[in-house]
Amino acid sequence: MPEPQMVMYEEEFRQIQGIVESLVRAANAGVAFIIDKNGQLIAAGGDADHIDTTSLASLTAGNIAATGGMAKLLRENEFTTQFHEGENANIHIQLVDNRVILVVIFDKKTSLGLVRLRVKKACEQLVVIFQTLAQKSSSQEDAVFAEITDDDIDNLFND
User: Fold this and answer.
1) Closest by Cα among 60, 94, 90 to 78
2) What is the CB neighbour count within 10 angstroms for residue 129?
3) In terms of C-beta distances under 8 Å and separation of at least 24 residues, what long-range contacts does 50-59 make, across chains too?
4) Nearest CA to 10 among 115, 136, 158, 105?
5) How far apart are CA 130 and CA 88, in angstroms?
6) What superfamily would CATH give domain 10-157?
7) pLDDT per residue over 43-67, tens digit each?
8) Cβ partners under 8 Å of residue 144, min gap 6
């Protein structure tokens, strides 16, 4: 089942973008980005010009979904961390509060230990922001529906 669409506000977007850019610098990584579980890019930092982030975001979301299926078969809630090591590039994938996916791409100029350490700190900050977004979204939805009266609904169907 697809995840509900997330509502992003400018203030939280700026905070998220700042965390991603800071993570790239602190971890000495090439690229970091955040996607939702539907595969939509939320924020990117670093040198992402040479990467098809749309395709990578979609594939990463599919990877998380497949890994979630494996976790269920093994009676686990979720595998929240993945690491893929390549000849020239490595990818660290972290599920953040079961809401979004943080992806860090790095090479031999840094270590997995440093990336994991910086990702942990970034995730703590991101959890707070995404919980705030969820609260804002639910209060906005409540406000929208509170304005609709029974008369409004009746008028829609009385034409």
Assistant:
1) 94
2) 18
3) 51/105, 56/103, 57/33, 57/103
4) 136
5) 32
6) Dynein light chain 2a, cytoplasmic (3.30.450.30)
7) 999 998 889 999 999 999 999 999 9
8) none
Q: How far apart are CA 94 and CA 63, in angstroms?
A: 12
Helix, strand, coil shares, percent, the chain, to 5: 50, 20, 30
CA 94, CA 114: separation in Å to the nearest integer? 14
pTM higher than 0.85, yes or no?
no
Tokens 């269920």 found at: 72
Dig out the tokens for 105 from the structure.
């791409």
User: pLDDT tens-digit profile of 140-153?
Assistant: 554 555 566 667 66
Cα torsion angle, 104, 106, 110, 113, sign: positive
- The residue type of 85 is E
Cα distances (Å, whole numbers) of residue 72 to 78, 83, 84, 85: 7, 19, 21, 25
* Bridge partners, 106 (sequence order): 90
